[in-house]
Amino acid sequence: MKKPPPPSYAEIRLEKIESGKLEPVVELAGEPKPKPIEVNSDSPTAENLAKLEEDIRVSAEEAVNAFNKAVFIIRSYNADIEYIIEEAVNEIKPETWESLKSKTRSKHECVRRATEKAEIAVRDINKLKEIVSKPSFDADPITKQTIQSNITRVQEDIEHAKREFEREQKLGSVAEKYWDKVEKARQNFSEELESLFPTIDLSKKHLCVPEEDLDLFVLHTYAHVLYYQKELAKMETIVQERLRAATEVARQGGGEVLNNAQICEAVEQEKRRLTLCFQQQVLKLRKQHELELREQLKRQSQTFTDHLDEAVRRRAEEIERELTKKYDELLEEERCKAKIQLAAIVGRLKGLDEAITEKNTADAASRQAQVLWSACQSLLRAIKAGCPGLSWKEQIRPLEPEITAVQKAAADQDELVSAVIQGIPKEARERGVYPEDALRERFLKVEQVARTVALIPEEGAALPVHLLSYLQSLILIKAASPIPQSELNNEIIDVSTLNTNDILQRARYWLDRGDFTQTLRYMNLLKGAPRCVAKEWMDETRIYLETQQAANTLMAYAASSGLAYL
């Protein structure tokens, strides 16, 4: 029986963009291809032909659609990049960045899908060519010619879509390089502005330049604009000159420039071919490794099952041993609990005993601190207070009883109390110290005598000098303000400029205010006969201050010791 010829068809593939849609689509125009006629034949050629025709139609349509979608996304991606480059950074909407990320992912997905579909379509076309070119293929010449024409048309559609995609991809790479250069230029310009004008905040939406930096800012910006204008004009001139030279060489028959372009194109084609081969090898290796992985997983699953059975058996034996052991441990645990409770009771008793002991120790230390405070208070009162109704010579008495009481009230081997008591002058222990009232009374007499001998040096002087010094003390008028305000404010003064009257006025000022320390400092500035007159008073005052300082230290120590046990 003779095989019937394959059905002839004349389908034309058209690429168009419908109004109202953003993405281009591919449609079939002309008379639709009839379905393949079922042939009762043992030859697989007719069945393979029908299946390949359908696969070629679907693969070609999907490949062209994918390429066109990728072209559309790349154009939109390039438009977003141009918008980002042209607009200021602070005026770009956040939605633009999200759209750019989404389009980047869609672009890679469409490129991958279009490449896969194009490879499938090319593979099916090669199979169809191989079937048609076989001598065993039984068909009339018109059918073969129609098949060849359709194959050529499908290949042209795919190649046309692929060329459009590659052209847009090259434009996209140029735009990305341009974007990188613009971002780098912006970053460099921002760093220059931050270096020249540290007070300018470039992150603000509205740039605020101080008035004192405005001229320099405008000059710097204008210099950059002039530089880039010159560079742009230079590049335009160089490009035009190169283009004119290449055109002239090509017109005169020279092939160097054109050969370079051809070499670059050949290199790009070889890169694309190697990339395609690499992708095919990757897919092949991926498939091979996936098969190996499945086999490994099967073997591992079987091994895991055997291991699980063994683990269950061992676990059962272990549970049995644990149950046996647990019964033995319960009795021991109860014994341990009883021992722990007994130990806790003993520990509480020991803690209670220690707490009582510590409380007794603290009470004893607190009482000792109170006794020490009372003894220190007695010592301080003996130093400051005198006996009313007696002269200052009769008010002095030894402080040995009070010091002995402090030593007895202090704890044994108390280093602080021992060191402070050893620092008390010997005169205060054996003779005693003059109270403040006695020191004031003596100071008035010392002051009067010191004013009388204010002009006499330490080695003495003639009688006229004595008379002159005496007359000066009579006619000298005391100042209303003995100390200037600057000196009261602790400002630096030159003490060498102070005379005897100035020193006595300042000492009297601080004595009236109860500051014996400051009074003694001023009295130490006296020279000559006034210093000899005041020397005994100065010694008594120093003994008083040293003893008072020791008493205050002991008082503070006793108070702090008492507070520690509250």
End-to-end CA span: 125 Å
Q: What is the makeup of the main sheet?
A: 2 strands, antiparallel
Tally of alpha and pi helices: 14
Radius of gyration: 57 Å
Structural class: mainly alpha
State mean pLDDT (0 to 100 scale).
Answer: 72
Task: Kindly give the count of domains.
Answer: 2
Shape: elongated
Strand content: under 5%
- Residue stretches low in confidence (pLDDT < 50, at least 5 long) are 1-44
The SSE order reads EEHHHHHHHHHHHHHH
Overall helicity: over 70%
Strand order of the largest sheet: 1-2
Annotation, overall tally of beta strands: 2
Family: Belongs to the MICOS complex subunit Mic60 family.
Membrane topology: Single-pass membrane protein
Coiled coil: 111-171
Keywords: Coiled coil, Membrane, Mitochondrion, Mitochondrion inner membrane, Transmembrane, Transmembrane helix
Write the layout of secondary structure elements.
Layout: E1 11-16, E2 25-30, H1 45-86, H2 94-133, H3 141-196, H4 211-252, H5 256-384, H6 400-409, H7 415-422, H8 426-430, H9 436-452, H10 463-475, H11 485-488, H12 500-512, H13 516-523, H14 529-563
Antiparallel strand pairs: 1-2
Subcellular location: Mitochondrion inner membrane
GO cellular component, one term: MICOS complex
Subunit structure: Component of the mitochondrial contact site and cristae organizing system (MICOS) complex.
Describe the structure.
The chain has 566 residues and is mostly helical. It has two domains: 11-202; 279-485 and 494-566, no CATH class. The protein has helices at 45-86, 94-133, 141-196, 211-252, 256-384, 400-409, 415-422, 426-430, 436-452, 463-475, 485-488, 500-512, 516-523, 529-563; strands at residues 11-16, 25-30. It has a two-stranded antiparallel sheet with strand order 1-2. Mean pLDDT is 72; it is low at 1-44.
